[in-house]
Amino acid sequence: RREPLALINLKKKNEETGEEELASRLNRYKAKATRHIFLIRHSQYNVDGWADKDRTLTPLGREQAELTGQRLASLGLKFDQIVYSSMTRATETTEIISKHLPGVKKISTDLLREGAPIEPDPPVSHWKPEAVQYYEDGARIEAAFRNFIHRADVKQEEDSYEIFVCHANVIRYIVCRALQFPPEGWLRMSLNNGSITHLVIRPNGRVALRTLGDTGFMPPDKITRT
């Protein structure tokens, strides 16, 4: 709902000035800035935890988050905000990363929680959630995509740089949707813990993938994919 033509009432078009009037009105609704979206997968965590509160970061996971925070800080960008999943492992990853980005506001959301976005195609044998999960999680994760992945607001004058700390399933689904690829293929991608995925959204709505699951900034012995 950010395509300029969708934001004006064509019934009010001035019949005398015709296309000139339409072009003038369209210009008022055109985005001017580029959005840079950095999707961060949470660090390694205790997979044996029964409840979410028990699935805390491992010592290695905390090291990974430090490395990710250092990498983001080294880019020298003026980050606007960090939006993060309310799940424990994403929250703890955010707290560590944010130490390297002082002053950047943090926003927690349930929309980015881990889940089953859509039944994968082809199917896999090692992961088969109950069918109801796709209905419960899919709508929420799609809502996350629609809420966060879009062109800049028309009022935004400068390019923005935003960080989203969440989960592998969510990131993979968002990448497929943003690139207009079949979302059923999300499970064909693999993301390391603490990895950085960089999407660019131009003012005209075009999306480019700069990096997918980058962990080149981590020593090989620190890289995991739990």
UniProtKB/TrEMBL annotation:
<dbReference type="Pfam" id="PF00300">
    <property type="entry name" value="His_Phos_1"/>
</dbReference>
<keyword id="KW-1000">Mitochondrion outer membrane</keyword>
<comment type="similarity">
    <text>Belongs to the phosphoglycerate mutase family. BPG-dependent PGAM subfamily.</text>
</comment>
<dbReference type="InterPro" id="IPR013078">
    <property type="entry name" value="His_Pase_superF_clade-1"/>
</dbReference>
<keyword id="KW-0378">Hydrolase</keyword>
<dbReference type="InterPro" id="IPR051021">
    <property type="entry name" value="Mito_Ser/Thr_phosphatase"/>
</dbReference>
<keyword id="KW-0472">Membrane</keyword>
<dbReference type="GO" id="GO:0012501">
    <property type="term" value="P:programmed cell death"/>
</dbReference>
<protein>
    <recommendedName>
        <fullName>Serine/threonine-protein phosphatase PGAM5, mitochondrial</fullName>
        <ecNumber>3.1.3.16</ecNumber>
    </recommendedName>
</protein>
<dbReference type="GO" id="GO:0004722">
    <property type="term" value="F:protein serine/threonine phosphatase activity"/>
</dbReference>
<dbReference type="GO" id="GO:0005741">
    <property type="term" value="C:mitochondrial outer membrane"/>
</dbReference>
<keyword id="KW-0496">Mitochondrion</keyword>
<dbReference type="InterPro" id="IPR029033">
    <property type="entry name" value="His_PPase_superfam"/>
</dbReference>
<keyword id="KW-1210">Necrosis</keyword>
<dbReference type="GO" id="GO:0090141">
    <property type="term" value="P:positive regulation of mitochondrial fission"/>
</dbReference>
